[in-house]
Amino acid sequence: MSDEHIIVVDDDPRLLRLLQRYLSEHGYRVTTAASAMDARKVLEIMQPDALVLDVTMPGEDGLSLTRSLREAGVFFPILLLTARGEPADRIDGLEAGADDYLGKPFEPRELLLRLRAHLRRIPTVVNANAGTPPILRLGRLEFDLVRGLLTGDDGPVHLTGGEAALLGVLTRRPGEVMSREEISQALDMDEIGERAVDVQVTRLRRRIEVDPREPRFLHTVRGKGYVLKPGL
To answer: Which of 40, 43, 139, 172 has an alpha carbon 20 to 30 Å from 181's alpha carbon atom?
Structure first.
């Protein structure tokens, strides 16, 4: 049984009851909130392991709350729920800082599987026999490929699940150009499209580059994709 804590935010009381019961049956501690305002009150007194958040609610919407939490330095996984499931809407969610996006109606089982994936997500461990060093240097940052931990002079650099997953994918093939399609498939973003990859690259550059507009490590190769070039 898991002791992980999930906060579910939605203005539909029926859906809140369903998700609270379903996730609880699968071992999670669940707290519900009916609005972004209520969620903020809950977040003042408890730190969840993940947040499941409806996009369209009266008052502050889910995108605004997501963006605000990321700007405040909150990095637990955020999964957005919405009836607006077009690729452009999902890109908006990623740009706001969400880790995933699930269109309504959805199967609770799919939500459960996505939550499990994000809660355990760290970059794939690199085979020690592949010749790739366990610590990868990005200037004054170090990325531990085994633990999926990025650290700097002041300690750990917090990454969202999406940012950590992208860095993990790129560190498996340092110095090698990866196409947007390859990255999209590795990140399980096929249905959203390659634009989602660009969004995650932009977010990751903010973490690892001194000047994201002039990247030293994560380069764009025009017409081909992206390449991670570690170094001092």
So the answer is: 139
The three-class DSSP label of residue 144 is strand
Tokens of 76: 């637990």
Task: Please give the Cα distance from 137 to 152 (Å, whole number).
Answer: 10
**Separation CA 27–CA 162 (nearest Å):** 24
CA 224 from chain centre, in angstroms, equals 24
Exposure string of 167-192, with b = 16+ CB inside 10 Å and e = fewer, is bbbbbbebeeebebeebbebbebeeb
Of 76, 83, 31, nearest to 54 by C-alpha is 83
Q: What size, in residues, is the chain?
A: 232
Number of Cα atoms under 13 Å in the Cβ half of residue 27: 7
The DSSP string of 185-231 is: HHTT-TTT-HHHHHHHHHHHHHHH-SSTTS-SSEEEETTTEEEE--B
Q: Name the pTM for this structure.
A: 0.71
| Residue range 74-114, pLDDT digits in tens | 888 999 998 876 777 788 888 899 988 898 899 999 999 99
59's tokens: 């008052």
